[in-house]
Amino acid sequence: MTGPERPLVAGGQVQRVAGVARDIAVHEQLYRYAHDLQALLDDKNDLEQRYETLAESYRQLGEGGAILENLVKSSHDIHLTTTPAGTIMQSNAAASRLAPASVLVGQSLRAWVLPSHQADFDSLLADARTSPEASLAERELWLRGPATGTANLITAVRLLPIFKDSEVEAIHWMVRDLTRAREAEFDSQISSLVFRSTTEGIMITDLEGDILAVNPAFSKITGYKPHEVIGRSPRILKSGVQDANFYHGFWSDLKEKGQWQGEVFNRKKSGEIYPEWLTVTAASDNEGRILSYIAVFSDMSRLREAEKRLSYIAYHDTLTGLPNRLLFQDRLAQTLAQAKRSGIQFTLIFIDLDKFKPINDTLGHAVGDRVLQEAAKRLSGSVRECDTVARLGGDEFVILAPGLAGDADIGGLCNKMLDALRQPIRVQGTEVFIGGSFGCAKYPNQGDDAVVLLKCADAAMYAAKAAGGNSYAIYDGGAMPVSAAEGAS
Amino acid sequence: MNQKILIVDDHSDIRQLIRITLGKSFEILEAEEGLTALAIIRSQRPRVVVLDVMMPGEMDGFQVLEAVKSDPALKDIRVIMVTARGQARDYEMGMARGADGYFIKPFSPLQLTGVIKELMK
């Protein structure tokens, strides 16, 4: 644009040209104004839009504020505001776990802190005033309950300092009660300890019966390591001893009563079948839904062994290990019943040791006991496998010999035993000598009654003893034994 | 504080436009040629002068600028030069004579307002 320059140096015509140039300049300037105006209008619209958005979010924030306020009011956590020094100014409903608001307000919160945690409380308060970032971290405080005797509260505390003109004006306390959680934690620790340390096997299964967990005692009893059974069915433990009926009853009990108890036989990893005392409990949640089954069992093999041992003790003589009077009577009754059915004969031999009493009296009970043990051994060693040698008490023994009937056979056995007893017995560095007096009674010759047979044998024994001992006599009818024989020598 | 602005332009429409732009915030003085402008500057002491370069009469814009900048009594007065488009030499001459701002027509009224507010601080 060179136009506007020329008119300045020219005359009349120039004025017109200059005027046109001036109009153009004004137009251009007006367009420039319009341009700026439009830019301003755009800005204005933009600003209005932003204002609307801001206003809307501010309104929502206001509503949100009310929601937040209600949250604090109805929160299960304790919310308090205190002065920077810790004096309570406000409390929410949950704070009644400490005391009613009427009591709390105006008091120092420190009064509710247990002495063991008052130092923590002081440092929390100091942090809130000096380094607000640090006070936002959760810290543990133990508070006392509303009255003496009520439980203490284990709490996690967070502090929110409220500033005004860069000074801490108040402190908002957020106090979360951990007591229940701690108790549950403790419970679960205890449960876990019991689970791990009990000598009873524990197996937890889901509703389908698949194994979820087993304890060390389970592994010890069954021989299965956890990784071998978890996720599998307890059927691997099945022994086959229980039938389908059993399992039917088992499941119906469990579903109806929530528990089953009883004795079952299961199979160990080694294949061994063992008896166990089993308690299965359905574990339910608060609403009664069954979550899992818990099987607790103890190995009864040991118990069985003990039972056997006990019954052995009840039926045997502890000194000699021979059957005692009780077991002998039982065997005699059995043999009698069997003999009556089958018609076989048997002989009862009653034995009283000779020369035992003086040994016992002069050398003492220890030697006497040793002699009795040796006598028992020699008698047992002389009879047949099918014969029963029993000690009735003191130095009295009895032999039950099924199938033995003939006098010659009876005599043979008696002589064998007499011979055995006659051998010297070495005890405590010396040798002692004993002998025996044997009385024999035969079934059915002398009767078919245990008492009668024993009386007859007893009588025959006295006859042998009366004849000088170291001999046997066979009862042969009548009131008194009729024959007695000298022992072979 | 003095809020006077002197608008010097031989074109009344331009003066009117600038008055519209600045009149709300400042007290506006007007002159249509150089001598009058200098007289007003000396008597009224405006803080800012918006000065058109090309004017009829005895003093053009540069001469007025030179007079202001060479007078110690007027050293606080800020001068914004306004000239026709594309006069690079004008710009250099203006800046050399101590102009505080420089606009080429058509100028943006928003930019002018911004510069004046800056100079008023």
Briefly say what this structure is:
The complex is a heterodimer of chains A (489) and B (121). Chain A is α+β, with helices and mostly antiparallel strands and 489 residues long.
Structure notes:
The complex is a heterodimer of chains A (489) and B (121). Chain A is of the alpha+beta class and 489 residues long. Chain A has helices spanning 12-74, 101-104, 118-130, 132-135, 179-197, 216-222, 226-229, 244-257, 301-315, 325-342, 356-363, 365-382, 407-422, 450-466; strands at residues 78-82, 88-91, 139-143, 153-164, 167-177, 201-205, 211-214, 259-267, 273-284, 290-299, 346-354, 388-393, 396-402, 425-427, 430-432, 435-443, 471-474, 483-486. In chain A, strands 12-13-11-16-17-18 form a six-stranded mixed beta sheet, sandwiched between helices. A five-stranded antiparallel beta sheet of chain A has the order 2-1-5-4-3, sandwiched between helices. A five-stranded antiparallel beta sheet of chain A has the order 7-6-10-9-8. The longest helix of chain A is centred in the N-terminal third of the chain and has 63 residues, at 12-74. Chain A starts with 11 loop residues before the first helix and ends with a strand. In chain B, 44% of the residues lie in helices and 21% in strands. Chain B is built from five helices and five strands. In chain B, 38% of the residues are buried. The A-B interface holds A 1, 4, 8, 22, 25-26, 28-33, 35-36, 39-40 and B 11, 13-14, 17, 21, 54, 84-86, 105-110.
